[in-house]
Amino acid sequence: MPAVHGGKEFYNRLLLKILRRKVIMKEKIAKIHELLNEIEKEEPLEDIQFVKNFDALEIPSIICSVVDYLFPILSPIETTIYIYLFRHSILANGQQHLRVSVTTLINAASSHHKEKSNISSKSVQKALKGLEEIGALTIDGEVTHDGTLYKVKLPDEIPTCQERIKAINIKITGPIQEKRELDFYNVTENRLKVFERDAYKCHYCKKQLTRFSATLDHIQPVSKGGLNSFDNLTTSCLHCNSERGNRPLMDFIIDKSTKS
Length: 260
What we know:
Layout: H1 2-42, H2 45-53, H3 59-70, H4 76-88, H5 90-93, E1 97-100, H6 102-110, H7 121-133, E2 137-139, E3 148-152, H8 159-172, H9 188-197, E4 214-218, E5 233-237, H10 238-244, H11 249-259
Antiparallel strand pairs: 1-3, 2-3, 4-5
């Protein structure tokens, strides 16, 4: 009998340990969920929209636009730095933001240039400033010991590249046929035509967008009989699109103008 009693005590202690571990695991899982919720709250709406619209199949066309429209206006070291940032942000994970230090960029630039002595902290900082001045980069956060948080822009967002892209699009894009019969909301090729018509600018706040950050808003809401037609759609940033919701267009415009 004592052996049986000892066996029960052993299993009771084991059961108690399992229960304690379950409680600890639940607490850890709860903390993880809290952290994930905080991260989601902190992530900018435009980043969420970029990731949502980003399609890896578009990478070849994105690279072509970078080579055709951006690289011709960059110096060799600016090109090297942009390639590094582009490679480790948009190409790596489909996001435009990357935190990087000057030291990391010096090492990256040195590995791609024969005359490594010309690559210094000063030359890299000058190249970063040059990329910022043309709009290829923006600083989007405070500097930490891990470096500076940069937002890497695509040619669609860079003013110097936009005019050339626009000129080429005018030549390529023919007249829109059967506007009302075609679906310009769900068909990717047709969505791009609306964005191009509006020059990738938000109809409400005039913010410059890209095909990854732009959304389409129905002028006449679908719930009130609005169509997915060329004339019933306008380009909008995610913030304005969400803020308007299902309100009548003029009510939203008037409300927005009074707030600003």
